[in-house]
Amino acid sequence: MKDSGFCSHARSESHVNAMFAWTENRKTMDKNASLFAIMDEENKKQVTENQYYIKTLAEILVLTATENVAQRSHRETSDSEKKGIFLSMLDLLSNHNPVIKKDLNNKQKMLSTPVKLSKMKYLNA
Fold it and tell me: Distance between CA atoms of 116 and 3, rounded to whole angstroms?
C-alpha cells in the first residue's frame, strides 16, 4: 500500500520539527499571557492602594485646614514626643490600616537613609 502525500509529510523530519517548535511556542505564549495577567493584577492592586493612601492624606489635610489646626510641630522627627497633628493622625490610622502602615514605614525608611553628597548635587540641579 502506497503512502499518501499527507501521511508521508506528517512523518517527515521537517514536519515533526515544525510541530515541536509550534507546540513549544504555544506553551511559551500561554505562560506569557498568564504572566501579563498577574502583572496587570498587581499593578491594579498597587494603583488602588496608592489611591486609598492619597485619599487618606487629603482627608487629614482637609480636616486640619477646616479646623484651623497647625499640621506641623516645631520639631518633627521620628523620635519626637510631639510630631504634629498630621503625622500623629497618620500614626493613629496606620495602627488600623495595613496599607497606610506599609506606606508610612516605607517613607520613614527612605527619610532615615542618608543621602550622599554626590547625589545631592543632582537633586539641587
Answer: 77
pLDDT tens digits for 56-68?
889 989 998 888 8
Q: Does any domain span residue 96?
A: yes
pTM listed for this prediction: 0.50
CA separation for the pair 71, 55 (Å, rounded): 17
- Grid coordinates representing 36 are 501579563
- 100 close to 56: Cβ distance less than 8 angstroms: yes
| Domain of 104, in residue numbers | 10-124
CA dihedral 83, 86, 91, 92 (to 10 degrees): 120
For residue 109, give the amino acid letter. Answer: K
CA 89 – CA 71 distance, rounded (Å): 10
Q: How many domains does the chain have?
A: 1
Chain-centroid distance of CA 35 in Å reads 16
